[in-house]
Design a protein that fits this description.
The model has no long low-confidence stretch (mean pLDDT 96). The protein has 289 residues and is of the alpha/beta class. The strands form two sheets. The chain has a five-stranded mixed beta sheet. A five-stranded mixed beta sheet has the order 4-5-6-8-7, with helices on one face. 49% of the residues are buried. The protein has eight helices and ten strands.
Length: 289
């Protein structure tokens, strides 16, 4: 079984569908969608419907899903205007045209989405300690790494001899992640992209965090030690690995999978990454889509 991850389609349903078609996750594979399905693009409800139709999909809530919930349930028109100012116009217009029972179903589904997941994948890339099993923390925006390490310490789990947490199981990580602030998981940038997590040790082992939220085309404003510029030769968004250093054994401890779909044409893309070998499939956001 393989594990695929995507994020931040932002209403660009055709690009998400094409990227998934290129990746071709199988019947026994898992697909994790890390939020921000809605807002910005022209068909946010189409993205939600596509994601809900996926086999073996696990969906996490992003900040734009929370903005949608707050905006749709706001008693004050100014609160709804704040959501629309943040890209919610297309979403609100689509929801207003839908039958009420379908709107209620969609909002209740979103309201119950988790904010993180912890998974494991068998490494297949030589530079990532091939043959070992690695834990991945998946969330929309990132994590408060010092708080996570403190929670692990409270569970009597310390870093290993090489400084990382390669021997910590997914279950223990999930318990420690329960102490995270939901607002950090959905909004954090500074304090995550610009600081090592301290989870990967000098032997290259330890959990890697995969997140979206920050478009790769602007990631350099927040991040250090990026593996690339966050754009390709045509200035389109790409998946970016972050943080390889001597302290991590040259292994990136974070991955940004927001390929800037929110920017639309011509820079925006949707990416789907397979964790086992870090292969990525892209679909461009076309003009008018």
């Amino acid at each position: 079984m393989a594990t695929y991850v995507t994020s931040d389609a932002h209403g660009h349903v055709r690009a998400l569908d094409q990227a998934l078609s290129l990746a071709q996750p199988g019947r026994d594979d898992a697909v994790y969608v890390l939020g921000d399905m809605v807002d910005r693009g022209p068909d946010p409800v189409g993205v939600v419907n596509l994601v809900r139709s996926l086999q073996n999909a696990v969906v996490l809530a992003g900040n734009h899903e929370m903005l949608m919930l707050e905006g749709m349930r706001a008693a004050d028109a100014r609160d709804k205007a704040g959501w629309q100012f943040n890209g919610g116009f297309a979403t609100s217009e689509q929801l207003e045209r839908m039958p009420q029972e379908l709107v209620i179903d969609l909002l209740e589904w979103v309201e119950n989405l988790p904010t993180f997941a912890v998974v494991t994948a068998q490494e297949q890339r030589a530079s990532m300690v091939a043959g070992t099993t690695r834990a991945y923390i998946l969330t929309h925006a990132g994590i408060d790494a010092p708080r996570l390490r403190a929670n692990l310490a409270e569970m009597s789990i310390a870093a290993g001899a090489h400084g990382g947490y390669g021997n910590v199981g997914a279950r223990e990580l999930a318990v420690a992640m329960g102490g995270q602030d939901a607002e950090d998981l959905q909004w954090i940038r500074q304090g995550f992209w610009d600081v090592p997590t301290g989870l990967v040790g000098r032997d290259g082992r330890g959990p890697v965090v995969v997140a979206g939220h920050t478009p790769s085309i602007s990631l350099a404003r927040f991040s250090k030690l990026m593996c690339g510029a966050g754009i390709d030769e045509k200035e389109r968004g790409v998946v970016v690995e972050v943080g390889p250093s001597r302290d991590t054994g040259g292994v990136p401890d974070r991955v940004c999978i927001d390929c800037s779909a929110a920017a639309g044409f011509p820079n925006g893309r949707v990416g789907v990454m397979r964790l086992e070998d870090r292969r990525v499939w892209y679909a461009d956001v076309n003009e008018g889509e």
